[in-house]
Specification:
alpha/beta; Rossmann fold; seven-stranded mixed sheet; globular; 7 strands
Length: 207
């Protein structure tokens, strides 16, 4: 992702964050505790929403421009149990079964290999651990939105940091062996129709 994209990201997303994303993030993250990894932490939109029940927080962000902004944001929320990593979703810098929760928000759309990313998330979760997700996804098959997503996707991902409009993230999570225990499907506020379909929820790694 280019420097300019990273620099303007928060400004572009500000109204959407205010109208829906902050509330969605808050509701999900209040359920998170223990040792936590956030994959693709971006500029740090989730940092202030984690509860005191989180005993260790690793913020992983592979893009150097995003990571610099993330580190600056972290400076405003100093905590000894928080660290920043440069690992990608497909190559998480962590031992097997080392986290109680893994969090991703608006990440699965842009990883190079979604299945590899979900496999890594499953690897680093402890048995019974949870994957907490908030993602924009493909619209239902046969809808006009899905047809537009399919048409525009090749150009969109080229200019939008590998962001895919038509990824079927929910089915990929299930295929990776997770049990989805909570899911909401909603429309992202103040966003173009092709990126409005979202899912958010919790998927559990079997014991």
């Amino acid at each position: 992702m280019s420097f300019l994209t990273a620099f303007f990201y928060d400004r572009v997303m500000a109204k959407t964050e205010q109208e829906c994303l902050q509330e969605w993030r808050h509701r999900l993250l209040t359920q998170v505790s223990g040792e936590v990894l956030e994959v693709g932490a971006g500029t740090g939109a989730n940092i202030k929403l984690y509860s005191l029940n989180v005993t260790r927080l690793v913020l992983s962000e592979p893009d150097k421009h995003m990571r610099r902004l993330l580190t600056e944001q972290l400076g405003n929320h100093q905590a000894g149990h928080v660290s920043v990593s440069g690992g990608s979703g497909e190559q998480i810098e962590a031992d097997d079964e080392s986290f109680d929760y893994v969090v991703s928000s608006l990440v699965c759309c842009s990883v190079t290999n979604l299945n590899a990313c979900l496999s890594e998330i499953r690897r680093v979760l402890r048995p019974g651990g949870s994957f907490v997700f908030l993602e924009h996804v493909a619209a239902p098959s046969g809808t006009s939105t899905r047809r537009w997503q399919n048409m525009i996707n090749p150009l969109w991902k080229t200019f939008m940091g590998n962001c895919h409009l038509n990824r079927e993230t929910e089915s990929a999570i299930v295929s990776e062996g997770f049990d989805i225990v909570q899911i909401d499907r909603d429309s992202m506020c103040n966003a173009p129709p092709i990126v409005r379909p979202t899912i958010r929820g919790i998927a559990r790694k079997p014991n």
